[in-house]
Amino acid sequence: MKGLLIADTAVVVVFAASGRSSHDEGLDPVAVLGTAWPFLVGLGAGWLLTKALARTGAGRTAGELADSASTWLPSRVGGYLVILGATVGGGMLLRQLTDAGTATAFIIVAVGFNAIGFAAVRAPGWYRMLRDRRAAGSGATDRVPVSR
Prior knowledge:
This protein is mostly helical.
């Protein structure tokens, strides 16, 4: 999970740097972090929220708890959506509070860039998970011979 957090952080920093570059603004590290910080705070909040959601389970059986907890892991689709929403939503909220600007076009670009970036770093894990599920469900006893 630590590697995934580092990759998510890199996506946010690249998002900030590419935005600054497209507007002919400086790319020195302090300036990039000045643009990225609201989204990095949102990213951290999203990760903490997924951890909290994965731990909840009052009134659930052990099997239900395992299923619901894994849904909210940062590497799973549910966790991905929470992290994406917190990153962009939290980032835009902080930008609004600091008068940094939240134009509609910027929100759309932020959602698109981070959604694609976060999905890209999770894609290999999602592929392995699907492959393993298929392999587990297609054992020799599960196969029906097909004749032609």
